[in-house]
Amino acid sequence: MYITLAERIMAIVNKLTLRREHKSATVELASLNREMALRMITLANETGEIMPLIKAVKAMRSAEEFYSPDTAQIEDARVQKKLGDVLLNIGKNEDDLSALEAAISAYRSAITISSMLGAHKLRTETRKSYALALNYAGKGQHDQSVSLMGAA
């Protein structure tokens, strides 16, 4: 069975249309998740609860698997970094491991997105915060110092 030129062209057009629709849906999903995260931040601010902040991180991360350099937005990285900053402060001030874990997750997302977009300054700032969150959570790099007795 042979495929005609018209059928091949139609298949290519359909494929391009699907890609365009996928990109549009991904951008819309990211926008909705960003909006939901911002509302969760507002809720956390009003109630003093951290769970809405943790849910905001999860909402932002849920669309991340669909990101590409064409669909990722720098605003998503900034929101994730801000969430990480707030959760890091809560985690270290209140000794709350769940807040620190959520901060680590938020920072990872911000690093990924800023790397994808070439936002080097944001990526560098976020990596520093990420390392700090890891240290507060007890997961950071520890200096392997050698005692004088061990070196002898």
Report the structural category. Answer: mainly alpha
N-to-C SSE string, H for helix and E for strand: HHHHHH
Mean pLDDT: 84
State which percent range the strand residues make up: under 5%
User: How far apart are the first and last residues' alpha carbons, in Å?
Assistant: 80 Å
Structure description:
The protein contains 6 helices and no strands. It is mainly α and 152 residues long. It has one domain. The chain is elongated and about 70 Å long. The termini are far apart. The C terminus is likely disordered.
Distinctive features:
6 helices, disordered C terminus, mainly alpha, 78% helix, 152 residues, 0% strand, single chain
Could you provide a short overview of the structure?
By secondary structure, the chain is mainly alpha-helical. The protein is built from 6 helices and no strands. Helix 2 packs parallel to helix 4, helix 3 packs parallel to helix 5 and helix 4 packs antiparallel against helix 5.
Task: Note the topology.
Elements: H1 5-47, H2 51-62, H3 74-94, H4 97-117, H5 120-136, H6 148-151
Helix pairs in contact: 1-2, 2-3, 2-4, 3-4, 3-5, 4-5
